[in-house]
Each structure stands twice: as C-alpha cells, then as structure tokens.
Amino acid sequence: MDVVMTQAPPTEDTTADASTSAPAPAAAAAAGAPTTDMAVDNTPVPSPTLYIKNLNEKIKLDVIPHHHYFPDSLTNSASPLPAIYFYNHLVVLKKSLKALFGQYGQVLEIVAHSNIRMRGQAFVVFEDQESASKALAEVQSFPLYGKPMVIQFSKSKSDVHAKKDGDFDEHHKQRLLTKEKFANDFKHKKRQQKLQAKQQALAQEQQRLHEEQHAAHLAQQQQQQALFAQQQQQNPYHPHPQYPPYGAPAGAGAPSSLPSGAAGGVPMVPDEYLPRNSILFLQNLPQESTVEAQLVSLFQQYPGFKEVRMVPGKKGIAFVEYDNEYYSAAAKTALADYQIGPEHKMKVTFARK
C-alpha cells in the first residue's frame, strides 16, 4: 500500500525508505542543519543500543483516498466504495528511523512509545556496538522532520540483547523495579506539587483576608478621624471649669494670675492652655506597681494608641503617646479627671513641646 507524506514517506523497501524518508547527514550539513551546536552527554558506556531524544512528535501526514471493494448485500456483487486510510505517526517515525540508521548496520529493533513519559524519544537497537558507534558519530544532530536529534548510548541493555545473552529474566526484573521506582517517585512528586499548591492557595487566601481586615481597620480609623475633625471644627475647645471656652472674653473663668518661669520671670503657660500634642502628660497617679498596666488598659481603648511611658525615678507621672494630636485630644477629653484610685483623680494634659 502506498502512503503519501509531506516529509518522509516510508515504504516497504528499506533502501527506498532511506532515500525518501530522511536525507543523508551530509546533505543535512550542506543544508545548514546543526551538527555540533547541541551538547550531548556521551558518558554512558558504549553499547549496541542508542537512545534518541528531541524527536518531532507532530509529523504531518497526508490522507489518501483509496477504493476498497465490499460485497453489496442487495445485489451480491462487488461495488467500489471510497475508503480513507490514516498512517499512524508513530509507525512513520519508526520506519524513518530504521531507514536512516539502517545505513550503518543491521537494526534489530526500534522502540518508541506515544505515552507522555516517552514522547519524543526512541531506542535504536543495532546488532553490534561498532554500528551503533558509527551511527552516533555521523547522525548526531541530524534534523529529522525539522528537529535535530540528540543521540547517546543507552544506559540499559535492550530486551533483544538480554535474550541473546541469556539474562532476560534478571534484566526484566530490574526493569520492572526501575519502572516501579519511577512511578513511585512520580506519584510522590505529584503529591508534593499538589500539597505546595494547596499551601500556596491557603497562604494567598490568608493574605487576602489580612489585607481586607487591614483596609477595613484603616477605613474605620479614617472615618473616626474625619468625625473627630468635624467636631473640632464646630467646637475647637470643650468648655472646662478651669478655663473659658474658645473665643470667650479674656479673664473670664481664667486663673487670676499666671505663674512665672524660673528664668527671668518669663510667664509659664499653664498645663490647661498648652497647645495640642500627640503625647499626653499624666499627673496625680497612684504609686502602685500595677498603675502602668491600668493606664494601658484605659488609653488603648481609644484609636491611635501607641504606648504608655513611665518616668523612671519619678512616681505619680507618666506619658501616653498616640498617632496624632486628634486621637490624643479625644482620649484627653474622655479621661480628664478620671478617678484612677480611691484618693487619686488623674490629671490629663498635653505634653509640653
């Protein structure tokens, strides 16, 4: 049966196959095909079997209509009916390899499979090692169907030579063990990949949730800050018994006299009139050892809280820091004159700058 192909049509005649299916390596070199560009590992011990990779998996085949005669059930006579024949690409590949490598010696077997693990690979089994060595040297990097072949000696013995040498049973047993080990390693690798993909997806989900929570927290802080700023614009200073509201006449409700500073009698601004600061100054605190924890519990309930700092060697005072002066002002207003102990009413003011 004749088969028409676009590149290398194999026929029943080996000599004809060699001339039609694959041009000679010398012609490939003349056509500019790569011969020494691809580095090949020739470390395996020379053997009569060659291992080939980088084979073209997608050989384009033409479809040929033929006439086949089937009996006509109605007239009991033969009538020509058109039939379509497809040539399997693996069969074409084997025939082309046999035609090409058959020029260097007797080829006993061509082993090629279409499964995923062996795709694009093949084994060419020669009668002797000399033929295999000659073929490897001359066909290396030959572009079969447009792809340069990568050839090296096979690391394992072929079934044909194992049967000839009389150790096929042991050879077959070792091959099954190797195949089982490869399958187990492949399954383990797949499990590890699935586990890593699952862990990565979980980490991405946790990161997404964290970002959403952080964004929600920032939005809440911005909303509270905007609300507080709006309240401060409407009433910048809250009324206080010790000093008049903002805009009140001078001297109304204010102390009768301002204390003088230590240097040159410069008047010192009372704590109640200090400008805003992100740091608050606390006075009249109890001297118990648990006062710091109590202050943290009190002030951290207000947004923007950063830390409480006690003053070493000085009892009864402390500092509380917030992110900005708006947050500190809100905490100051809420906790001013807070009864922190039976005999201690906490005094909260802005710290001096």
Automatic annotation (TrEMBL):
InterPro entries from the UniProt entry: Nucleotide-bd_a/b_plait_sf (IPR012677), RBD_domain_sf (IPR035979), RRM_dom (IPR000504)
KW RNA-binding (keyword) present: yes
Chain intervals with Pro residues compositional bias: 238-247
Record's keyword annotation contains RNA-binding: yes
Compositionally biased intervals (Low complexity): 8-39, 194-206, 216-237, 248-261
Pfam families linked: RRM_1
Disordered: annotated span: 1-41, 187-263
Domain RRM: 48-156, 278-353
UniProt keyword list: RNA-binding
Protein name: RRM domain-containing protein
